[in-house]
């Protein structure tokens, strides 16, 4: 069964600090991996999309890494801001329209 | 630039009632999706469409029906609502299949549905 596990479930950090969120998956065959940001009461918004051949992809202060051998991905947030408070969802695709969503990491940035 | 618009935003139903959720996108996307999001679970695909006039079942289709009569609209219907269908429903659209390519899915802001 395809699974996507994210850790930690929740995280509190001080404004200006860095943090790293983890995503482990057992999806096969692998097509691509996406990170989404979901603000409270809003729909998810795409941050990065990575295919099998990509190791790193950045979007401003967000940097995602992918290790296809160990089936792990991470999302690093640099110099956090209050507006980074949200849930971050890892999504892995395995073939046509076969997509598995993680349950997300809830990040709270405090002043 | 509206993107994906869902109506209504909130709704309370009684068990056995029916209703239709509307999703509209203005990006000329071929692919449209309906998901449900429940506490402690990842989003789950209910139905999807790969173009006008087409629909297909996703992971959790039971109790729901969909229609895509126009390219820009994707409707989700609950024929006889049950408390287990209490959830937040998200519509999404994309240029290419979610599973392939490098184009993102664009999500609406959800419909919060409670079934009493």
How would you explain this protein's 3D organization?
The complex is a heterodimer of chains A (111) and B (116). In chain A, a hairpin with a 2-residue loop joins strand 6 and strand 7. Chain A has 111 residues and is mostly beta strands. The mean pLDDT of chain A is 94. Chain A has no helices and eleven strands. Chain A is 0% helix and 57% strand. Chain B has 116 residues and is an all-beta fold. In chain B, the strands form two sheets. In chain B, strands 2, 4, 5, 6, 9, 10 and 11 form a seven-stranded mixed β-sheet that branches. Chain B starts with a strand and ends with a strand. At the A-B interface, strand 5 and strand 10 of A face strand 5 and strand 10 of B.
User: Overall pLDDT of chain A, averaged?
Assistant: 94
SSE ordering of chain A: EEEEEEEEEEE
Beta strands of chain B, count = 11
The structure class of chain B reads: mainly beta
Q: How are the SSEs placed, and which strands pair?
A:
The complex is a heterodimer of chains A (111) and B (116).
Chain A (H helix, E strand, L loop, with lengths): L3 E4 L2 E5 L4 E7 L6 E7 L6 E7 L4 E4 L2 E6 L4 E6 L8 E8 L5 E3 L3 E6 L1
Chain B lengths: L3 E4 L2 E4 L5 E7 L5 E7 L6 E6 L6 E2 L6 E4 L5 E6 L8 E8 L11 E2 L3 E5 L1
Parallel strand pairs in B: 2-11
Antiparallel strand pairs in B: 1-3, 3-8, 4-5, 4-9, 5-6, 7-8, 9-10, 9-11
Gist of the model:
Chain A is mainly β and 111 residues long. Chain A has strands at 4-7, 10-14, 19-25, 32-38, 45-51, 56-59, 62-67, 72-77, 86-93, 99-101, 105-110.
